Amino acid sequence: MNKSSFHLKDITIKLNMPRMEDILNLPVQDPPCAEFSAALINWVKVDGGRQGGDAVALILFSRVDDFVKGESMNAECPASFRVESRRKRTEGSVSKPRVDGYLEYRLYWCSYGPEDYRDSEPGVGENLNSKPQSGKGSRPGRRHMMRGCLCHFTVKRLYTRPLLALIIYNQRSHVDKTGSPCHGILDRDAVGTRAMYAPRISEELRQKVMSMLYVGISLDDIIQHHTEVVERHGGPSNRDDFLTRNDIRNMERVIKHSTREVHQNNVDSIPVWVHRHQKHVFFFRGASATESFVLGLQTEWQLQQMLHYGNNSSIAFHSTFGLKKFKHRLCTLLVFDSCQNAIPVAWIITSCFNGQDIPCWMVPLVERIRMKDARWKPNAFLIDDPSFEISILRDAFQCRVVLCLWHVRRSWMKSLLKKCSSLILQQEMFNYLGRILYSARDGPSAIDAIEEFMQIFVDQFSFMEYFRDQWLPRIDMWVNGMRLLPVANQEFNGAIESYHLNLKSKLFGEQHSGSWMRVDWLVHTLTTEFHSLYWLTQYTGDTGYFRNLKVCTFSANSWYRALQIPNNDVLLDDEELRMIRVISQSERSMAYTIWNPGSEFSLCDCPWSRLGNLCKHVIKVCILCRNRQLARPSIAAQTYRQALLSLLNNPPDDPIVLNHAILQVHRIQQDIKGLEDLSNSGLLQPLTILETNGHVVVDDLLPSPGLQ
């Protein structure tokens, strides 16, 4: 009777078990955590097919690496999984694909198996010509860790659903052929040995050490730092905590033997690099007779920074680098941390100079981000070129588009400093140039402002020739862009310009002049040395380590340095406020003069500003003028006011839209009042609140796409 009942139970389970033909009806699972293991997935056993009886699950193909990382962090059996076998097919190569047919097939196996060399004696009876049982070929340096582990799983990128991956867990337990644990804390023989932990260091630690080596931190300093970190969290608990000098020397050899030119021919070199570094590439298209060259780069660290700092915040497009010296233009997507430092989160190298190739790389980049976090969404996308197709940018990121004037300001200022010797003349001309763009908001027309400027300064032949050749043909484009788009404030201008200067200092050194025309050199430098500098800057800011080695990292931007200037060091001794002085923070007996205060076209006589840069004194005065309403509103502030007036004068026909707009304005007013109350009660530092208010006014209150 018992046998019959068990038999009936088996039949019931068999009937309820889905067949392989039903796998596409399984739910697609996407755990909310960054990395996840098999314990966070609902597994289903299937009947029939090659995977009959195995546990299967469907996840997004873009999250396979997250699953592998999660499985490697098993608390009882830490491991790392290697790709034991890999196969690929091209789309259209199969006329009638199976339901579990694949575009890509990977077999992942625990690095502690499948061979078992625990009982073998090194050098005794060893046949050097024999091949390991797995068929992988010889694995130099791996024999000592082979403990017969049978844990393995298969990943199939489905042929009929390329965005999905079918995971087939063939053996989930870390056991040997006898069914006993063979490594980790459950294996008694492994206790007290390295077999308790993962067989090799994690990718995160490898990236960390490689970055330290690239920026010049010595082996001894790395070991000392690592020891301090391990001691701080209570001693060794995983393989990373056992980092050795030999591990670091191995990485030093990798760096030493890495080459910037993987092929003598520059054209052939890039496809080879892309094939070797597929994890760093989110888009690649070779040049042809009808299409431009495009290479999109994003490391795993950059992806995480974009997810963290880009969500509900601003993203900027730096698109003006290398136009004269490089073979192709270098574009960068930037996000901003809490100190308003610009962090590069993607690089795009392209032979197209008019922005027509933006949709081809932007769409896969946004898809890559949203596959990691479907809720990810920025609130503003900043551009430095109004010729870009605004609708494409707005549709891709689903947010408002904001115009940034940093490039215009910097180009005009550097040209004035070069072509006009008089300081007074420079500040007057810079003020008039600002009026041309201000005319897009109020006052005379742009044509009248240009004519007035060229008549007054007609004797400045050198600058006028530059202005006619470089700017007059496209000044209408900028003026129209100012009319249609909100304008970013000085905080963003300073951050983007700071990144621009970092690029120049790293890439435009004379020692690199022979490599400027090679794209492989540019790609290698960006993804190694330059990337490592930004990684170390963030790591130092987050942890406090290596502050004494700050020379290795980039300096703070002008906006952050402006916050360190006390309000009392700003001298308002001109009744008409045509100029304001700021006491030097390094030489207290000296004060610098800022002309046209509060404007995007202020000019300072400090050494940093005299090089054509946006200095901390200009930003400090702009902050003070904005919050005390001491000067004419900046273009960014005028943009916000005009949007509100437009809303009041032309209310939306839809009452729901109108109510939403009124509620938004009321909420912002309450937020500002609450911050003012905190400041008045002494619970908030006045400078911080001024910055917060200013950032809210210019960033959160910029008109949405519907108002543009």
TrEMBL record:
Task: Give the Pfam families listed for this entry.
Answer: SWIM
Q: Which domain of life is it from?
A: Eukaryota
Q: What PROSITE patterns does the database record attribute to this sequence?
A: ZF_SWIM
Q: Where is the composition biased (Polar residues)?
A: 127-136
All copies of the SWIM-type domain together span: 592-626
Give positions of region: Disordered. Answer: 120-142
Q: What keywords sit in the KW lines?
A: Metal-binding, Zinc, Zinc-finger
The GO molecular function terms of this record are:
zinc ion binding
PANTHER family, sorted? SWIM-TYPE DOMAIN-CONTAINING PROTEIN (PTHR33977:SF4), ZINC ION BINDING PROTEIN (PTHR33977)
The protein depicted here goes by the name SWIM-type domain-containing protein
Organism source for this protein? Papaver nudicaule (Iceland poppy)
Phylogenetic lineage: Eukaryota, Viridiplantae, Streptophyta, Embryophyta, Tracheophyta
